[in-house]
Amino acid sequence: MRLFEQQARDTPRGYAVIAGADSLTYGQLDVRANQLAHHLMADGLPPGAVVAIGTARRTEIVVALLAVLKAGGAYAVIDVEVPLTGQRQLAALTPYVLLTDAAHHARLDDGSGLRVIRLGAEAAAISGRPTEAPQRPEPGSTAAVLFTGAASPRAVPVGHARLLAAHEGWAKVIRPVPEDRHLITHGPDLTPFAAGWTRALCSGGALVVPERTPWTPEGIRRAVESEQVSVVHTDPAGAARLLMHAAGSPSGPGAGSAAGARGRRASDPALRSLRLVTVTGDRLFLDEQDALQSRLRAGARLLNVYGLTEAAGAGTWFELPQLPGPLDDPEQLSLIGAPFPGCRADARDGELRLTPPDGGDAIPTGDLVELRHDGLLEFRGRIRDRITTADGAFDPHAVEAVIRSHPDVGAALVAEVPEGGSGARRLVAHVAPPADAQSWPPAVDLPEGGQLREHLAGKLPRAQIPQAVIRLRTLPRNRAGQENREALPQPVLTAKPGRGGAAGGSGKYTAAGAGTPTPLGLVGCGVPFLVGTGLLFFVLSKIFWPGSTDLSGVPGPWAFLFFVLYLFEGAAFAAGLVFLFGGRALMLRHGPGQSPGFTTAAHLAVVYLLISWWPQDNFYRLAAKHDWPVQAALVYVFNIPLMIAAVVIAFYVTRKPPSPFDFEEADAPGGSSAR
């Protein structure tokens, strides 16, 4: 607090928080924090008590966390965008009081009797408090409580000395100046923001935050350009969206890899204000870092940061000038460099143990590293991801790194999946294109199973070469920006006839859709398929329903229009037959998380929506208008089932399956790392 209050005294009119209409100067922010601090103390906040902050307005979050520190408490920012995660965080925290607003009170308070201060409802009482800094009691040992994980959040207390030491370590690395404008893309409950606000407010800079809703890729880019942001703290996917896709890549936001195409481009004029980008949250390969660096202006810096929650976001850092010389195979290397000032990093039995910036015991991270001969730490994977097969255990990171050496692969995750009901398990590679891949549609250039195995032959042990490939536009990531292995789609493994697989080397097992033709692929024939099958069933109509397609009495141009209608009905019937035999497997692959029974119902509903038009229209054309028994039968055989089928499809496409990627943040390495 001393550093912030010094800035408030020295530059009271300088902007501290930039958020559109919610922007605050240092003087205004200090006054509002003082008033809320007095309110908390009058409410009986004990020294060192934890105050949970649950609101979507970032300006209010900054005011609240400063107020808590001024009042001698410890702050914890709660996730309000995913209420289930927020409730789990509160359960792990048991705070003294929850600061929230009306919009989020009901979603966070589960009726457990939690003490609540409604920020909006008590605004008058808060604004009536004194504006000078309160006489703070002796603070407790904890300054902040940060969270790791979401399925079972773990509260990590961080002391005042550690928070300050982490800030000082960051300051020595990034060298902030009062003219800087900082933008943190991570959610406010995540370590990069919850512990990273000090980089701006304790150095005289401004913190740029969204006015109401969370950051979007487009909003980040607009803010960087309009607010002249100079420092961005983000994750690998966020860096790719900002620096790579802005350069005109057609692959769109959300690509699975930060970069991948080898080459350099001119920097984006809209990002001219950037002098520093820090990337944290997940592994960043050396070729990705080089490609991102090439999008910045000359002299701008890009840092790959390994941050630990227990160390308040500090850990190790790497930037390209640390390299003593050129390196081969940059697409297979992920360097995390050297420790932050005050930190110490040791590799014990291959596992990274990190000593926090304020000292103390070394913390086992659960991450594998290697100390290279040049003195730099190389990331080698996570212990929790290790795969055990009949031939022994191996770390998928090494396999994924070799897969990335394929020129068309930008990102890869390898998983072991069950093979049917036999109990056997197979290795599956999930691959995505580079962030700036020029192919359209995206992922079209990714290798098939046989091509990838041919590329990996001789580079990996046979037991570590994936038997199947799933080609994705992007790899799934959680809210922290980490690659989410739990959210990977499951393959549909199909046996291939013949020894060694089909011609072309696709192997005995392959993933449907990964270079294997499917019956549904016939639909891709487009106009020839439509005309051919339409004519076929037009002829069949004359056999099964003589006279139903007779257009001799229909004047032009209506006769031609009805003829086209008959072609579409026949083509739809044929498509329904194709989907009957090939559609369910594809639905299971593209809709992981839905129950098999529900998927079957939706599959049959789609089939009926396609096949019913041809027989229905022919029956209707031959039925007498006043033949009520026939008309009623047709209604109940065709029309009502069509409505039911549409309802089933509506529920299927709108029902959100229970997926950890949708509402849970995967545990960080070792259950504690911000990476």
Structure description:
This protein is an alpha/beta fold. The strands form 6 sheets. The chain has a 13-stranded mixed β-sheet with strand order 2-1-10-9-11-12-13-14-15-19-18-17-16, sandwiched between helices. Strand 12, helix 12 (286-294) and strand 13 (301-307) form a beta-alpha-beta unit. Helix 15 (527-544) crosses helix 16, helix 16 packs antiparallel against helix 17 (596-611) and helix 17 (596-611) crosses helix 19 (628-654). 47% of the residues are buried. Residues 247-264, 493-525 and 658-674 have low confidence and may be disordered.
Number of helices: 20
- Look at the helices and sheets and give the structural class: alpha/beta
> Residue share in helices?
25-40%
Number of strands: 26
Radius of gyration: 30 Å
Low-confidence stretches: 247-264, 493-525, 658-674
- The end-to-end distance, rounded to whole angstroms, is 27 Å
Overall spatial form: globular
The overall pLDDT, averaged over residues, is 83
Determine the strand fraction and express it as a percent band.
15-25%
Write the layout of secondary structure elements.
Layout: H1 2-10, E1 15-18, E2 24-25, H2 26-42, E3 50-54, H3 58-70, E4 74-77, H4 83-93, E5 97-100, H5 102-108, E6 116-118, H6 123-127, E7 142-148, E8 154-159, H7 160-174, E9 181-184, H8 191-194, H9 198-201, E10 206-208, H10 217-226, E11 231-234, H11 236-244, E12 276-279, H12 286-294, E13 301-307, E14 315-318, E15 335-339, E16 344-348, E17 351-355, E18 363-371, E19 377-382, E20 387-389, E21 392-394, H13 396-403, E22 411-418, E23 425-432, H14 449-456, E24 468-471, E25 493-495, E26 509-511, H15 527-544, H16 558-590, H17 596-611, H18 613-622, H19 628-654, H20 660-663
Parallel strand pairs: 1-10, 3-4, 3-5, 5-6, 9-10, 9-11, 11-12, 12-13, 23-24
Antiparallel strand pairs: 1-2, 7-8, 13-14, 14-15, 15-19, 16-17, 17-18, 18-19, 20-21, 22-23, 25-26
Helix pairs in contact: 1-2, 2-3, 15-16, 16-17, 17-19
